[in-house]
Design a protein that fits this description.
Blueprint: H1 19-34, H2 37-48, H3 56-72, H4 76-86, H5 93-109, H6 113-124, H7 131-147, H8 151-166, H9 171-187, H10 191-208, H11 211-227, H12 231-248, H13 251-267, H14 272-289, H15 292-308, H16 312-345, H17 347-364, H18 370-411, H19 421-438, E1 443-449, H20 452-459, H21 461-479, E2 483-489, E3 492-497, H22 501-514, E4 518-520, E5 523-525, E6 529-535, H23 543-559, E7 565-567, E8 572-573, E9 579-580, E10 588-593, H24 598-601, H25 604-612, E11 615-619, H26 622-631, E12 636-637, H27 648-664, E13 668-673, H28 682-693, E14 698-700, H29 706-714, H30 718-721, E15 723-727, H31 728-733, E16 743-747, H32 764-774, E17 783-788, E18 798-803, E19 817-820, E20 823-825, E21 831-833
Parallel strand pairs: 6-7, 10-13, 10-14, 11-12, 11-13, 15-16
Antiparallel strand pairs: 1-3, 1-6, 2-3, 4-5, 7-8, 8-9, 16-19, 17-18, 17-19, 20-21
Helix pairs in contact: 1-2, 1-3, 2-3, 3-4, 3-5, 4-5, 5-6, 5-7, 6-7, 6-16, 7-8, 7-9, 8-9, 9-10, 9-11, 10-11, 11-12, 11-13, 12-13, 13-14, 13-15, 14-15, 15-16, 20-21, 21-22, 27-28
C-alpha cells in the first residue's frame, strides 16, 4: 500500500511589524511547496540566527516548515512529536488547521491510528474559521475514511472539500483537493474514474507549481493503468513519477512508485532483473518502516516474479511471507477500524461542539470582552449543573416514593388494605417453613361474610364494599401483628398464625365480638362471618393443603347454619358459643354449563353451585377457566387429560373416572362444562346416569349452547323450516339423508371423517369427502356458512359465507360449525337458497 502524502496548504500570514522578515517567512513557505525540501531547509538555517527578531506567529510558521521537511526526509516519528507539541502553542486559526492536517497524515503514515483519529476530532472542531484550510482538513478526513474502508464517505468528504476550493482562487488548494478525490476513487477500485481525476490533478498541480503532487498524480495514473491491465502505459507513468519523486527528495513517494514500475515490468514480462532489484530494495525499506501492508504487496510481487522465472519454491516462500504480512496488516486494519468507530461514537458530541462554536461567534459581537463571555458560560454551566442536580434529586425522591407505593399496591388489597392473595401465600410459605423447623404450632383460618350477596342486593355495592373494608380493619386489629392476614378474593379472608387451633379460635371470638352494625348512606345493617380453622398436625405436606383443609371446614360451617367456627376434623362453634356437631357432608353431583361467554351467560344458580361444592371440575375455554379459578382456586382443570394424538374416547373415560371417584367418596361435586353441558356432550350425561344408578343425588343445570348463539347471531328461527343438528362425522359415516327444505347444522366439521378420535385439526381429505356427499342434494354454488360463536364480549362471531364447493380450502377451528341453509322451491321447481339474516356489526 503506498505511503500517504503530506497534504499541506498555506494561507497568507498576518501582517508583522517587520515587513522584511515577514517577506522572508513567506518566501520560506513558498519554497516548502514549490522546491525540494533541502532548499527550504537552507532558508531555515539562514533564519536561525534571527529567531529572536521574529514574532511568535512567524516562529511557529518557521517551526512548522522545519517539521514538515523532517517528515519529508523520512524521520516521521520525530516530526509527529514536534507537530503535536506545536499544537499546544497559541496558534492562529489557519496555522492550527494546517498543523492538524499535516500531523494527521504523519500519524496515519506511522500507523498511530488512535492519535490520527483523535487529531482529526480536534481539527474538525475548528472547521469554518478558514475556508482554504477547512478544505484541506476535509481532504485529510477523506484520506482517513479511505484507510478504514469507508470509501463512500471518503468520496463525499473529498468532493465537499473540492467544492470549497473550486469557488476560490488558490491553485494549490485545487491541486490537493483533486488528489483527495482521486485517492478515494482509487481505494473504491473505480480505476477509470480515478485515472480521470489523476489527470486533472496533474494539470492543477502543474499550474500551482507543486512538484510533489505532480509526481503523486503521475504515480496515481500509473497505478490506475496497472489496475486496468494496461501495464506498458503504467510503466512509463511509473518511471516518470519515480524520477520526479527522487528529484524533490520525497522518499516515501519514490518507494511507492518503484512498486508500480516493478509490477508493470513483471506483468509485461520484460526487465525482470530490474524488477527483482527494485523489489529487493523496496522490501528492505518497508521492513525498516515496519509497513505490513506494503511488505505484503512487495512479497506478492516477488512471488509473481519467482513464478514467472520458474522458481516455484521461491514463489511459495514469498507467498507465505506475503500471507503473514497480510495478516499483520489485517490486524492493523482492525485497529484503524476500532479507532474510526470510536470517532463515530463521538460524532454527535463533535457536531454539538461545532454548533456551540458557531453560536459563540454570533454572540461575540454582543459580548463586551472575552472574560465576560467565559464568566457567563461558567455561571450558566454551574447553574445547569445545579438545576440538573436538583431535578435528579426530585426525580430520585419521586421514584423512591413511587416504587414504595407500587410495592405496597402489589402486596396489598386496595379495599381492605390487608395483604392480597399472592402476598399471603408468599409470606405464609416462609412462616410455615419456620414453624415446621422450630416445632411451633401453625394454624390457618379461612373466613368469609355470610350471605354477602344479599348485602349487595339489599343495600347496594357501596354497602358491600364498606362491609369488606370494615371487616378488613377488624381483622387487622384482631391479628395485630401476631400473624398474617389477607383478602383471598371476593368476601373471603385468610389468616395464618403461629399458634394452635385453640389460640386461633380465641382470636376469632375476639373478632366476632368486634363486628358491629355498619351505616352507609343513612341505612344501617349488620352481618356475620363463618370460619374454618385447620392446625398443621404433621400430615399437611404444604401450606396450600393446610389452607385447603381450612377452606373445607369453612364450607362445613356454611352448610351447618353459618355464623360459626368449624375446626377441620373437629366441632363447630355457633354464634352464641354452644358447640354443635358439624353437619355431615352429603355427597352429590351437579353438572352446570358455563355458557359460550362465561361472563354473560353463566347463571346465578351455576355460580352458587360452584361456590358451595367441595370439589369443582372444569372443562371450558381458557377465559372461563380463569374466571372460575378466581372463584375457586382449587378448581381441577379437566382439559389436562387431552393431548395431541391421544384418542378422545380414552380422554372421556379418564374424565369420567376422575369425577366419579370424588362423587363416590361422598364429596359434593360440581362439574362445569363449556356451553350447555347436555348438548353434544357425552361425559356429563354419563356421570349423571352413573351417580343416579349408585343412589347418589345427581342433576344437570342447563347452559347457553353454541346452537342457541348461532340462532341469535345468524338471525335464524329454527321453527321456520325445521332443523337437523348432527355431528359431521356422524352425518358422513352413518350416511344420514338431509332434509333440504330445512336447516342443516353439522358440528365439529373440522374433524369430519376422523374415526380415530385423535385429531384436533382439519384435513382436506375428510372435508372433500363431506362436500362430495353434500353435493348429492345441494348444488356446488349453494351458499353455506362457517360459524364460530364469540367467547368474549369484545369478540365478533365468525359467519363466513362461501360456496359449498370451496369448503375444503377454508380455515377451520376445532369448534367450527357448518350451517347449510334450506333449499326453497321456485315456481318451476328450481331450488334456491333461503338466506338467513346477516350478522349486525358490533
Amino acid at each position: 500500500m503506498p505511503i500517504a502524502l503530506l497534504l499541506l496548504a498555506f494561507a497568507p500570514a498576518p501582517a508583522s511589524a517587520s515587513a522584511a522578515l515577514e517577506a522572508e517567512v513567506r518566501e520560506l513557505e513558498r519554497l516548502s511547496v514549490t522546491a525540494p525540501w533541502r532548499e527550504s531547509g537552507a532558508k531555515i538555517e539562514a533564519l536561525a540566527s534571527r529567531l529572536d527578531a521574529l514574532t511568535p506567529d512567524q516562529r511557529h510558521r518557521v517551526e512548522f516548515v522545519r517539521l514538515r521537511n523532517l517528515a519529508l526526509a523520512g524521520d516521521q516519528p520525530a516530526a509527529l512529536a514536534g507537530l503535536t507539541g506545536l499544537l499546544q502553542q497559541d496558534l492562529s486559526a489557519s496555522l492550527r488547521l494546517r498543523v492538524h492536517a499535516t500531523a494527521i497524515n504523519i500519524a496515519a503514515n506511522v500507523e498511530d491510528w488512535s492519535l490520527a483519529f483523535a487529531l482529526l476530532g480536534e481539527g474538525l472542531s475548528s472547521l469554518g474559521q478558514d475556508p482554504g484550510e477547512s478544505a484541506r482538513l476535509l481532504g485529510v478526513a477523506s484520506y482517513l475514511h479511505t484507510l478504514v474502508g469507508e470509501t463512500g464517505k471518503a468520496r463525499e468528504l473529498a468532493l465537499q472539500a473540492l467544492g470549497l476550493v473550486e469557488s476560490g482562487s488558490d491553485p494549490r488548494a485545487l491541486c490537493l483537493a483533486l488528489g483527495d478525490v482521486a485517492l478515494a476513487e482509487d481505494h473504491a477500485r473505480n480505476y477509470r474514474e480515478a485515472e480521470t481525476w489523476r489527470h486533472r490533478q496533474i494539470e492543477a498541480c502543474t499550474r500551482a507549481g507543486d512538484p510533489v503532487f505532480v509526481a503523486n498524480g503521475k504515480y496515481g495514473v500509473g497505478k490506475m493503468l496497472a489496475g486496468q491491465g494496461r501495464h506498458a502505459e503504467a510503466l512509463e507513468w511509473g518511471r516518470q513519477a519515480l524520477a520526479e519523486f527522487e528529484a524533490v527528495g520525497f522518499e516515501a513517494g519514490a518507494w511507492s512508485a518503484r512498486l508500480v514500475v516493478a509490477e508493470s515490468l513483471i506483468e509485461s514480462n520484460r526487465g525482470l532483473e530490474e524488477a527483482r532489484a527494485l523489489l529487493i530494495d523496496t522490501l528492505r525499506y518497508y521492513r525498516e518502516q515496519e509497513s505490513d501492508l506494503a511488505i505484503a504487496e512487495t512479497r506478492g510481487l516477488l512471488a509473481r516474479l519467482a513464478e514467472r522465472s520458474g522458481d516455484l519454491a521461491a514463489a511459495l516462500a514469498h507467498f507465505k511471507e506475503a500471507m503473514s504480512a497480510a495478516e499483520a496488516a489485517e490486524r492493523d486494519a482492525r485497529e484503524r477500524r476500532l479507532a474510526y468507530l470510536q470517532v463515530e461514537f463521538d460524532t454527535r458530541l463533535k457536531e454539538q461542539q461545532i454548533a456551540l462554536l458557531q453560536a459563540e461567534q454570533e454572540l461575540a459581537a454582543l459580548q463586551v470582552t472575552a472574560t465576560k463571555r467565559r464568566q457567563l458560560l461558567l455561571w450558566m454551566g454551574m447553574l445547569g449543573l445545579l438545576v440538573t442536580a436538583i431535578l435528579l434529586a426530585v426525580l430520585l425522591r419521586r421514584s423512591f416514593r413511587e416504587r414504595r407505593r407500587y410495592r405496597w399496591q402489589s402486596e396489598r388489597d386496595s379495599l381492605t388494605r390487608l395483604y392480597n392473595y399472592q402476598q399471603v401465600r408468599k409470606l405464609g410459605q416462609a412462616m410455615f417453613a419456620r414453624a415446621r423447623e422450630t416445632g411451633r404450632p401453625f394454624t390457618a383460618i379461612v373466613a368469609d361474610i355470610d350471605l354477602f350477596k344479599q348485602v349487595n342486593d339489599r343495600h347496594g355495592h357501596a354497602a358491600g364494599d364498606e362491609a369488606l373494608r370494615s371487616l378488613g380493619a377488624w381483622i387487622g386489629e384482631a391479628v395485630d401483628g401476631r400473624g398474617i392476614a389477607g383478602r383471598s378474593g371476593g368476601d373471603e379472608f385468610t389468616i395464618l398464625l403461629e399458634t394452635d387451633a385453640a389460640g386461633a379460635e380465641a382470636l376469632l371470638q375476639r373478632l366476632r365480638a368486634r363486628i358491629g352494625p355498619i351505616t352507609v348512606f343513612g341505612r344501617t345493617f349488620g352481618f356475620s362471618i363463618s370460619s374454618g380453622v385447620c392446625q398443621a398436625d404433621g400430615q399437611a405436606a404444604d401450606l396450600e393443603q393446610l389452607i385447603h383443609e381450612a377452606d373445607q371446614a369453612l364450607y362445613r360451617a356454611k352448610h351447618g347454619g353459618r355464623d360459626r367456627v368449624v375446626c377441620a376434623n373437629g366441632e363447630a362453634q355457633e354464634a352464641h358459643g354452644a358447640p354443635a356437631a358439624a353437619s355431615a357432608s352429603a355427597g352429590g353431583l351437579v353438572v352446570v354449563g358455563s355458557g359460550i361467554q362465561f361472563g354473560r351467560h353463566v347463571s346465578e344458580r351455576a355460580l352458587s353451585e360452584i361456590r358451595e361444592a367441595e370439589v369443582v371440575f372444569c372443562l371450558a375455554d381458557p377465559f372461563a377457566l380463569g374466571m372460575i379459578a378466581g372463584l375457586r382456586p382449587d378448581t381441577v382443570n379437566l382439559g389436562l387429560h387431552y393431548a395431541e394424538g391421544k384418542d378422545r374416547r380414552q380422554t372421556y373415560r379418564e374424565i369420567d373416572a376422575a369425577i366419579m371417584a370424588q362423587v363416590r367418596a361422598g364429596k359434593r361435586v360440581c362439574a362445569v362444562f363449556y356451553g350447555h353441558p347436555g348438548v353434544f356432550a357425552d361425559v356429563p350425561h354419563r356421570v349423571v346416569r352413573k351417580a343416579r344408578e349408585a343412589g347418589i343425588p345427581a342433576r344437570m343445570e342447563p347452559g347457553i349452547s353454541a346452537e342457541a348463539c348461532l340462532y341469535a347471531d345468524l338471525g335464524i328461527d329454527p321453527g321456520a323450516h325445521g332443523v337437523q343438528s348432527l355431528e359431521a362425522t356422524q352425518f358422513l359415516v352413518e350416511e344420514r339423508r338431509p332434509e333440504t327444505a330445512g336447516l342443516l347444522l353439522l358440528w365439529q366439521v373440522a374433524l369430519a371423517g376422523d374415526l380415530s378420535c385423535t385429531r384436533f385439526h382439519a384435513e382436506r381429505e375428510g372435508l372433500q369427502a363431506l362436500v362430495d356427499r353434500l353435493l348429492r342434494w345441494y348444488p356446488p354454488d349453494h351458499e353455506v356458512i362457517l360459524y364460530e360463536a364469540a367467547r368474549l364480549p369484545i369478540e365478533t362471531p365468525r359467519a363466513e359465507r362461501l360456496p359449498l364447493r370451496d369448503l375444503p380450502d377454508a380455515h377451520y377451528e376445532e369448534y367450527t360449525t357448518l350451517v347449510i341453509p334450506p333449499l326453497a322451491r321456485g315456481p318451476q321447481g328450481a331450488s334456491t337458497p333461503v338466506d338467513p339474516a346477516p350478522i349486525p356489526k358490533p
